[in-house]
Amino acid sequence: MKIMITGAGGFLGSRLCEYFGTESDYEVIQTHRGQPNISDREELLHFMDKNKPEYLIHCAAISNLSSCEADPDGSYQVNVKDSLHLAEASVKCGTKMIFCSSDQVYLKNGIQTPHKESEELMPPHHYGKQKKEAEEWMTNHAKDTVCLRLSWMYDFEKKYQSEHDQLYTLLQNAMKNKEVLSFSVNDIRSITYVREIVTNIEKTFKLPGGIYNFGSENQFTTYDLVGRMLDIMNVEHNMIRKDEKTFSDEARNLGMSLEKIRKYGIELQDTIVGFQQGYMRYVNQ
Ligand SMILES: NC(=O)c1ccc[n+]([C@@H]2O[C@H](COP(=O)([O-])OP(=O)(O)OC[C@H]3O[C@@H](n4cnc5c(N)ncnc54)[C@H](OP(=O)(O)O)[C@@H]3O)[C@@H](O)[C@H]2O)c1
C-alpha cells in the first residue's frame, strides 16, 4: 500500500516516514515543499493521480502560532487553501486523507473540562482559526477525511539539529546549562510523546470521516506535570519555578477527552504513563 506524507521533513512527518519506511506493508511517498507544489491544484492532482496513494497523512503546515500571527496570509495559504487542495485531490483519487489539526481550536472556548469534539469553537489566533476552517471544509466537502486534533508533542531526541525545541529538549537544555524554567499552574495541556501518535496513526486509517481528538489525556497543570516528569527522571525540582501569573485571569485548559476515538478501539497512553514508558525506553536503549 502506498502512503503519501506531506511535510516529510518536519517534526511529525519525518518520524512517520521513518516508521512507515520500516513497515513492509507500506511504500512511503515523501513530499517536501514545492515537490509537488501543493498550492498548484493541477500539479498536485497530476502527482496524486500518477502515484495513486491509498492513504495521505497531511503534516505540512505553518505550525507555529507566532509565525501565523506574523504572516496571516502566507499561513492561510498553507494551512487552509493547500489543505483543501489535498482534500479535493484525495476525493478525486480515492485516497483516504488524514489531516493534522490541533488542540489550539479549543483555545478560549470557555470550557475547563477535557474538551470534546462537538464543542463550539472560537479560537482567537490565526493558527487555530485556520485549522478550524480547514476542518469545517473537509467535514462538508471531503467527508471521508479524518481530522486529528493533535496536541503539543515531544520526543526524547532531536532528529536534526535545526529541529524546533519541544518540552523534553527544553528540559534537557536547562539541565545542561543549569537554568531554571518557569511553568504555569494555570495551564493544562494534553502533552503527548510523538511515538504514541506515530505508532497508533495507522489505526485511524479505518475511521469514518470526521473530527477526532488524538493526544494523551492529562489533568495536571503544566507545573505539576513537569514535576512528575522530573521525579521519573530522578531530577531535583529546583530547576523549575511555579509561574502563578500567566493565565491567572483565565486558566488555559487545552486538555482533550479521548472518549470518541476510544469507541473505535483506539487508545493512547495518558501523558504521565506515555512519558514514563518513553523515558525508560530511551535511557535503556
Ligand atoms: N508539533 C506539535 O506539537 C503539533 C501540535 C498540534 C498540531 N500539530 C500539527 O501537526 C502537523 C505536523 O506538525 P510538525 O510539528 O511536524 O510541524 P513542523 O515541524 O513545523 O513541520 C511542518 C512541515 O511543513 C512543511 N511546509 C511548510 N510550508 C509548506 C509549504 N508551503 N509547502 C509544503 N510544505 C510546507 C515544512 O517544510 P520545510 O521543512 O521546508 O519548512 C515542514 O516539513 C501540522 O499540521 C501541525 O499544525 C503539531
Architecture overview:
By secondary structure, this protein is α/β, with parallel strands linked by helices. The protein has a domain at 2-154 and 191-218 and 255-269: Rossmann fold (3-Layer(aba) Sandwich). The chain has ten helices and twelve strands. The strands form four sheets. The protein has a six-stranded parallel beta sheet with strand order 2-1-3-4-5-10, with helices on both faces. Helix 1 (11-21) links the parallel strand 1 and strand 2 (27-30). Bound molecules: NADP nicotinamide-adenine-dinucleotide phosphate. The site of NADP nicotinamide-adenine-dinucleotide phosphate (NAP) has 20 residues, from helix 1 and strand 4.
Topology:
Elements: E1 2-6, H1 11-21, E2 27-30, H2 41-51, E3 55-58, H3 65-70, H4 72-93, E4 96-102, H5 126-141, E5 146-150, E6 153-154, H6 167-176, E7 181-184, E8 187-188, E9 192-193, H7 194-200, E10 210-213, H8 222-233, E11 240-243, E12 252-253, H9 259-262, H10 271-284
Parallel strand pairs: 1-2, 1-3, 3-4, 4-5, 5-10, 6-9, 7-11, 8-12
Helix pairs in contact: 1-7, 2-4, 4-5, 8-10
This protein binds NADP nicotinamide-adenine-dinucleotide phosphate.
**CATH superfamily of one domain, called what?**
NAD(P)-binding Rossmann-like Domain
Which CATH-level-2 architecture of one domain? 3-Layer(aba) Sandwich
Order of helices and strands: EHEHEHHEHEEHEEEHEHEEHH
**Total helix count?**
10
* Percent of residues in beta strands: 15-25%
Per the principal axes of the C-alpha atoms, what is the gross shape? globular
Mean of the pLDDT scores?
97
CATH topology of one domain: Rossmann fold
Bound molecules: NADP nicotinamide-adenine-dinucleotide phosphate
Distance between the termini: 31 Å
